[in-house]
């Protein structure tokens, strides 16, 4: 017996198949969508390494993180450990220290990159050190020259004061004032020269510290282990 499939029957069959497919898809979607009021599933790994599951917060895991799962098994939320005030304070202090350490490391990396850009090799670093020390030397020498000039002025004033060495109070006020001014200027220049000497030490120390670090960075940049570079300066 031969059955003939008419266009009407063919359309009816197509609609039936589409309806069945839609029902299957809708059922799957409903199964994956959390139902209102559906019980929450708590899960955690306790201090003994056991995987625990419950429909409420798990007492054995109050000191650690617990996960809240949807009925489908996906993670809905995470619940942190219940901490005392002291434990919370210690945790905050630890997190702050870790944050500061990360910031310090990031700043150190930034400085290292800046050093390598500024000083690609030792010759450049040596040249900048020489220029910096030379500039301080010029300023210091100007102060030394000023001291020599003031010493000559002081000697001339002291020559005038020789006439009044038995009673310096009888010396003219202008001469006494000139001697005071010269002595004050000499004190100022002496302090300035001492400051320049301290600046030389500071700049030298800075360049030595930079060079120590740069030797490590240059070695790492060349792909050679820097074991020896960190032992001696």
Structure description:
This protein is an alpha+beta fold and 233 residues long. 64% of the residues lie in helices and 8% in strands. β3 and β4 form a beta hairpin. It is built from four helices and four strands, in the order αββββααα. Among the domains are: 38-84, no CATH class; 108-221.
Topology (elements, then pairings):
Blueprint: H1 7-32, E1 41-45, E2 51-54, E3 66-69, E4 75-79, H2 85-118, H3 122-161, H4 173-221
Antiparallel strand pairs: 1-2, 1-3, 3-4
Helix pairs in contact: 3-4
Q: What is the overall pLDDT average?
A: 83
Coarse morphology: elongated
Give the count of helical stretches. 4
Q: What is the strand tally?
A: 4
- State which percent range the strand residues make up: 5-15%
Instruction: State the secondary-structure class.
Output: alpha+beta
Largest sheet: 4 strands, antiparallel
Distance between the termini: 103 Å
List the keywords.
233 residues, alpha+beta, elongated, single chain, four-stranded antiparallel beta sheet, 4 helices, disordered N terminus
